[in-house]
Design a protein that fits this description.
Layout (H helix, E strand, L loop, with lengths): L4 H24 L6 H14 L3 E10 L2 E3 L16 E10 L2 E10 L5 H17 L6 H14 L3 E2 L4 E4 L10 E3 L16 E4 L2 E3 L5 E3 L6 E3 L10 H14 L15 H13 L3 E3 L3 E3 L5 E3 L2 E5 L4 E3 L5
Antiparallel strand pairs: 1-3, 2-13, 3-4, 5-9, 6-7, 6-8, 8-15, 9-14, 10-13, 11-12, 15-16
Bound molecules: cobalt (II) ion.
């Protein structure tokens, strides 16, 4: 619940910075560009403007719907005919904004992008305090289906808390019967992120993760000195927000990072987020905004005018 003026001010500022970083990132998506260059530019833009990245810049290509960010020694370079999702988060003192845009370099998926962008715009039009989660899903699904595409059913928007990118409630992109009576109350911050595809409309985890976060749990047996060193840096810098090995490269050696993260994950201290890939390798488009519900109005924090 965010009701204090100071929190609202920080959420609005984080939203503007995230929105600008998103558009800046999209402008860098062109033939020959690398994911690493774009993501690092986006992340340093956020820092330069006085916020922090709320999670690693996601640069997901074609059938990869989400959760790709370049690793310590892998990268994606664009051939010039891809569909690229740039998903950006910024926070000020834990007050988060989350937003995404899709760029079609091929020129062949204009309808798919239009369908998903329009789905998000239609949601912007109907959101008000106490809106039903069901009505958001119904609007997203109907808009995407109108264009003969499918929403991705197992990807959802989400409520957001302080220093928590997912605060527990999901906002499905389809009308879920179980959500029929669920309403979003004033004081709620949440992201709506329709994903649409020409595939089957489901994603699964595939490939190795470059995104992690701290679960807040300590293991039962003591950590080794190496594990403690890695965890200390993580907790100090990111708390429970997602991070990527790239961000640790200045402080720790590559091998220490990779080994340390794997061990901490096995012990339940960290959780990892592998890339999410459409099950039929359909092309996926995504658009996303963050919404803050107040008593009598709605602020779409990441919408720039
Ligand atoms: Co999100």
């Amino acid at each position: 619940m965010f009701v204090l003026d100071e929190a609202v001010d920080k959420l609005v500022r984080a939203g503007r910075i995230a929105g600008e970083a998103r558009d800046y990132g999209a402008s860098l998506v062109k033939k020959g560009a690398s994911a690493r260059e774009v993501c690092e530019e986006v992340e340093s833009y956020i820092r330069r403007k006085g916020a922090q990245p709320a999670f690693p810049c996601n640069f997901s290509v074609n059938e990869v719907a989400a959760h790709y960010t370049p690793g310590l020694d892998d990268d994606v370079r664009l051939a010039g005919d891809e569909v690229v999702k740039v998903d950006v988060g910024a926070h000020i003192d834990g007050y988060i904004a989350d937003t995404a845009v899709t760029v079609d370099l091929s020129g062949r998926y204009g309808d798919l992008l239009r369908a998903v962008r329009e789905a998000l715009e239609n949601v912007v039009r109907i959101v008000r305090p106490n809106i039903r989660v069901y009505d958001i899903g119904r609007t997203v699904e109907a808009t995407i289906k109108k264009y003969k595409f499918k929403p991705v059913r197992n990807l959802t928007g989400h409520t957001i808390g302080r220093y928590m990118i997912h605060a527990g409630e999901s906002i499905p992109n389809v009308p879920e019967r179980s959500m029929f009576y669920k309403r979003l109350r004033p004081g709620t911050l949440f992201a709506v992120e329709p994903f649409g595809t020409n595939g089957r409309g489901y994603v699964r985890e595939e490939g190795s993760a470059n995104i992690y976060s701290y679960t807040g749990r300590r293991p039962r047996t003591p950590l080794t000195p190496e594990e403690s060193a890695v965890l200390e840096v993580i907790v100090e810098r990111f708390r429970t927000l997602p991070f990527t090995p790239r961000w640790l490269a200045g402080e720790l050696e590559g091998k220490v990072i990779v080994e340390g993260l794997k061990k901490l994950e096995r012990r339940g201290v960290l959780v990892s987020y592998p890339p999410l890939v459409e099950v039929e390798n359909g092309i996926v488009a995504q658009f996303e905004h963050t919404f803050l519900l107040l008593k009598d109005r709605v602020i779409v924090t990441t919408k720039l005018d």
